[in-house]
Specification:
By secondary structure, the chain is an all-beta fold. The protein is built from no helices and 11 strands. The termini are close together.
C-alpha cells in the first residue's frame, strides 16, 4: 500500500478519496485502503458492482480476518460473490450479505461510498490507499 500524501485524501465535507474511478473495473479486483479507528487503522476495500462503487471493511463477519486471496482479489471467478480466503464464507457482492458458510445471514460492514468527479470516495478518514 502506498500512503496518500497531505492529509491522506480527507475532504472538507467528510468524504475522502480512495482512488480514481477508472481503477475499478466492473466485477474486477478491488482497491484496498485503510480507515482511521480508535484502535488503529482498519482495512477496507471497494469494488465496482453493477456500475456502482461499493465499499466494506475487509473483515469476515465470522472472524475478523481479511477476506482477499491476494491483495485486491475478493471475488470468485464469476464476479458475483466475495469469498473469504480463510473460512470460505460467501457474500453476495451486491449487498455484502453472507449467503453461505459459517456466518450465513450476517453481513460485511459497509463503508459509505460514492463516485464523484471521476474519483471514488468514502465517508471516513482514509489513512492509506493502494494505487
Amino acid at each position: 500500500m502506498s500512503t496518500d500524501g497531505g492529509g491522506a485524501g480527507d475532504l472538507a465535507d467528510g468524504w475522502a478519496r480512495v482512488c480514481d474511478a477508472g481503477q475499478l473495473a466492473e466485477r474486477g479486483d478491488g482497491v484496498r485502503f485503510e480507515i482511521a479507528a480508535r484502535g488503529g487503522p482498519i482495512p477496507a476495500f471497494v469494488l465496482r458492482i453493477d456500475g456502482q462503487p461499493l465499499a466494506w471493511l475487509n473483515q469476515c463477519a465470522h472472524v475478523p480476518v481479511e477476506l482477499d486471496w491476494t491483495p485486491g482479489r475478493f471475488l470468485d471467478d464469476t464476479g458475483t460473490v466475495i469469498v473469504c480466503a480463510t473460512h470460505g464464507a460467501v457474500y453476495d457482492a451486491s449487498d455484502g450479505v453472507c449467503v453461505g458458510g459459517p456466518c450465513r445471514g450476517k453481513s460485511l460492514q459497509a463503508v459509505p461510498c460514492r463516485e464523484r468527479d471521476g474519483e471514488i470516495e468514502v465517508q471516513a478518514t482514509v489513512v492509506k490507499s493502494e494505487r
